[in-house]
Amino acid sequence: MTDQPLLSVRDLAVEFGHGAGVSRPVDGVGFEVGAREIVGIVGESGCGKSLTLLALLGLLPAGGRVAGGSITFGGRDLLGADPSVIRSLRGRQVALIPSDAGAALNPVARIGRQLRLSLRTHSPELNSQQRRGRALDALRRARLPRPEQALSAYPHELSGGMQQRSAIALGLQNEPVLLLADEPTTALDVSIQAEILRLLVQLRDELGTAIVFVTHDISTVREICDRVVVMYAGQVVEQGGVDEVLTSPSHPYTAALLGSIPPLGGVPPDQLETVPGMPPDPAAWPGGCRFQARCRHHVALGGPEECSSTWPGSADGVAVHAACHFPLDASPLEEVRR
Ligand SMILES: Nc1ncnc2c1ncn2[C@@H]1O[C@H](COP(=O)(O)OP(=O)(O)OP(=O)(O)O)[C@@H](O)[C@H]1O
Fold first, then answer.
1. Tell me: the pLDDT tens digits for 138-161?
2. What is the reported pTM?
3. Which residue(s) pair with 42 in the sheet?
């Protein structure tokens, strides 16, 4: 991490509803992204990953609002900024790659037209020939086979993988410094998923674009990310370098997620673990550590009182180590360490 991160999120909170009916599905999230870094945000479904990304872009769904915290991008405070500033950053400096490219692309416009329209909005200085050249370059960079033909194709004429490559081209053609990718491979076949993941890493290497990569699949994080932010129940429970966190997790939730995937190398166990139980409801977060009710470590330690009374993380959401009163690497209990 450089001294001046490209993106800095502190104590971010997102709320829905009013009065007694308020829920806070993102509740004090903090992390940083350096230039050229690929940062994975990982956690089970519903832990607040997508809302965190959407809050960064000022694109929360109706009824949702940022209820606290700060977002600084390139040294600029985004939450205090005029909406027109956010709009001009979106698409030009920050681009979103959605999970379902088919839904993100306009079904009744040819790919080339969609690329040119976006260029017209974000790079009005280009003439039509330059726009066509830029669109073609973007498709080539996204490794679309036969990019000239793809320019005149409608989305439904392309395979799922090619649609996702087109969506990536759409995001990249304005040469953003930050790409936000929300489960960009879930809708694709496994072999195509691997190709798209490789493509993202290649694009970072070639263009220097930093990437925030949201996924529920911790094995994907291991493949492509430099750093990882582990979220549980609207909070960050652990973050750090991928090698460090995924080789020697400190938070029992990270360890539980790792137990649910085959280990790197070595012999896969007969049965992979699942994390028993369900996450809590964002409308009624429990006090203390939110993972406590599902934590094997908590049980093994005899149910320490502080787990239910005090949140073990940092005030701004940036858990330097793990947000746990009894992190695994400091645990005297060998049997609960991985
Ligand atoms: N439009 C909405 N109105 C009210 N609550 C919402 C809305 N969208 C999301 N939420 C709440 O926020 C929680 C987190 O949603 P989010 O989409 O960020 O989860 P996620 O971690 O990205 O999950 P997934 O991996 O399934 O996409 C949801 O479980 C839900 O309780």
1. 999 899 999 999 999 999 999 988
2. 0.91
3. 215, 230
Task: Give the strand order in the sheet containing 178-182.
Answer: 94-97, 178-182, 210-215, 38-42, 227-232, 235-241
Nearest to 34 by CA among 6, 74, 76, 73: 6
238-282 tens-digit pLDDT: 999 999 999 999 999 999 999 877 666 666 556 656 788 899 999
- Residue 312 alpha carbon to ligand 1 centre in Å: 24
Ramachandran region of residue 113, left (φ > 0), alpha (ψ -120 to 50) or beta? Answer: alpha
Q: Which residues line the pocket of ligand 1, CB cutoff 6 A?
A: 16, 23, 25, 43, 45-51, 61, 63-64, 216, 282
Question: Which CA distances in Å does 39 have to 54, 131, 227, 230, 302?
Answer: 16, 31, 5, 11, 35
Residue of minimum CA distance from atom 18 in ligand 1 = 48
Q: Which two tokens stand for residue 305?
A: 């009182």
Domains and CATH numbers, the chain: 1-93+176-338 (3.40.50.300), 104-174 (no CATH)
Atom 10 (ligand 1) nearest CA: 25
Q: Give the tokens for residue 175.
A: 């040469």
Q: CA-CA distance, 33 to 1, in Å (whole number)?
A: 7
What's the gap in Å between 25 CA and the centre of ligand 1? 7
Measuring CA to CA, which residue among 146, 155, 158, 164 is closest to residue 109?
Answer: 155
Angle between helices 160-172 and 128-141 (to 10 degrees): 130
User: Rounded distance, CA 220 to CA 197, Å?
Assistant: 8
Ligand 1 binding pocket mutation candidate from 15, 16, 18 (most atoms within 8 A of CB): 16
